[in-house]
Amino acid sequence: MALKRLLKIGGYLVATLLGVFVIALVLLNTEAVKSRILKRANELLTEQLGTQVKIGDVDISLLHQSIRFSDVALDDKEQRPMLKIERLGVELKLLQLIQNQIVIEEAELSGVEALLLKPSKEEPANFQFLIDAFSKKKEADSTMPKEPKKKVDLEIDHVLMNNIHLHYNDYDARLQKAEFDIGWLGNPTLSIEHIEALWTSHPKKGPMNNRAHVDQLTTRLRRGNYDVTVNGLNFKTDNGLPRKNAGKPKKGYFDTGHFDLTANLHVLIDSIANDTLKAHLLECTATDSVMGIDIRDLHSQIFTNFTKVNLKETTLQQKNTVLHIPEAEMTLPSKKEERPLSYTTGTITGHTQLQDIAHTFAPVLDNFSYPLNLSVKVSGNNKHISFRDIVVTSDDQKLRVNAIGSIDHLGKKEDVILHFNINQMSVARGIPARIIDQFTVKKLMMKQLDALGNIGYTGNLTIPYKHVNFDGTLRTVAGSIDVLLGLDSMDKYVTGQVETKGFDLGQVMDIDGLKDIVCSADFKVDISKPRTAEIRKAKGGKLPIGTVNAKIEDSSFKGIHIRNLTSTIESDGSEALGDIYQQGKHRDLYFSFSFTDTDDMKKMKIRNPGIKFHEMSEADKEAEAQRKQQRAEERAAKKEERAIQREQKALERQQKREQAAKEKEQKRQENAAKEKEEPTS
Length: 681
Fold this sequence. Notes:
Layout (H helix, E strand, L loop, with lengths): L1 H27 L2 H19 L3 E9 L4 E10 L5 E12 L1 H5 L2 E16 L11 H7 L18 E4 L1 E11 L2 E11 L7 E13 L6 E15 L2 E14 L21 E13 L4 E12 L4 E3 L1 E8 L3 E10 L4 E10 L10 E11 L5 H4 L10 E10 L2 E11 L4 E10 L8 E11 L3 H6 L9 H6 L3 E9 L3 E10 L2 E10 L4 E11 L1 H5 L7 E10 L2 H11 L5 E13 L2 E13 L3 E8 L3 E9 L9 E9 L4 H60 L4
Parallel strand pairs: 4-5, 4-6
Antiparallel strand pairs: 1-2, 2-3, 3-4, 6-7, 7-8, 8-9, 9-10, 10-11, 11-12, 12-13, 12-14, 14-15, 15-16, 16-17, 17-18, 18-19, 19-20, 20-21, 21-22, 22-23, 23-24, 24-25, 25-26, 26-27, 27-28, 28-29, 29-30, 30-31
């Protein structure tokens, strides 16, 4: 009977609770109750925040333990619409609240429009009042003992966001969909679809519009690691100006004001904390069809404490290029801590065809398919880059370069200087012609280039703004030449000076009877396409256009010894005209010549030969007197030297005679001593 009574009481109690629950559920969802709740909530929030707040509708379900708001609107202090939300919903486990736990089974946020403004560093943001309103105020009496805070555990199982639009000053961001799910066995997944950001930056050269877009981003937690995949990452810039290479066919398409780069990434984050990150970039591709960027694979091991970044086993692959960086370290810049950017690498090795960077940086390399191997160490900062232990070789080792280099004054392009000190360069015969064939340029004097045979070079290469300067020593089978060469890309001229103490010019130019020469020369050649095209159109021809001034100190031609010979050559492209003048003591020789083809110098024409007699000038007389005095002094010195040598030889002969007599006497004495010691028979 007692048990039956207890069961009946329990039944009544359950029925009563269910009845109350149903009544509460019905009341909470009637229009009258909801209207009163919304009205009071809007009044309280408007009073609390000091601005207009409106909640259009609310749906509270005790059965599903959920609450959903619709058409939420909030103005800022200037009565501008600051926040609009079409739908905001949360499903909670109400019983967990008793245990100080917040468990959100489902959260949804859709149709968000947010206008956030902060005009300047000094002025407050338009959302500052929200932060102030919900900040915890200090207790009036700080001497009162504080109650210990109860720890609240927060758990979120699933979140869905749709159609989010955020505007912050010059930044505009949109999100089509984002979804987070705690997953089974604690393996959460975050998926984002179509997120986009637009903003305007303000570099020194003027405003630039920027766009970043991601088609899909997925993050999964697997075995303690975060597996991140990014598809369709696009970064685009537009400064509203023509591309830098507009009207400049020799200039590459690389232009930071006109990026349109698309990339795909796969990253494995091993560990992440407040001050460290360890990850593996497993895969990366990046393309910009206009600019010519084509990275087919990039992977690396990454570790950073957000002050320094360490990279290991980095590999970059393009169509015909593979670069490997075993290790690298970068110090990240910080204005606050007055820390500049700096970096250093181990020995970078790789195999490349320079045509891979042609479209981006140098269209002149578009056909450069000659394979090269390289190794180099790099270090630098935001003002300077240093290249050490540079080695460039061809596969067959017929080309080899050892050098060091640097780039200085980074920042303003007009101040940048590129410099290489070439310790050794060796190029086998035929390779220079093969390299020149990689370029679509007019090929001149290729026969003479081949006649130089194996070429070696030691010297410097300096590249200031729109100039290229060489200075060093060129070694060939015909002899060595000291070279000073300059390329002026502004005025379009090649200028240079050469000097040799012995060069077989006859062999190189195919002139019979011309032997080694000791000479110096300077030259200037026009490389302007508009200027040379105009001359070619009028006169034709295939010679370089320019002038040469040369001085031959010593040489011989068909058995005739030649000294103090000066020559001037002027070429208009179709014909080269020259004058040769030799100054002697009492007579001068001169003649003119002309040729139209450097590959057939045997057809050179000699014109207007002549001879002029004259008395010696005062300078020549003084020079002749000095030469006579020098020759007399040399003869006297040689005579004195020969006398000393004769005395020395006489002294040596006397010493030899005395030594021979001494040895003879010693031998006689030894023989006499032996005779005395022998017994008589």
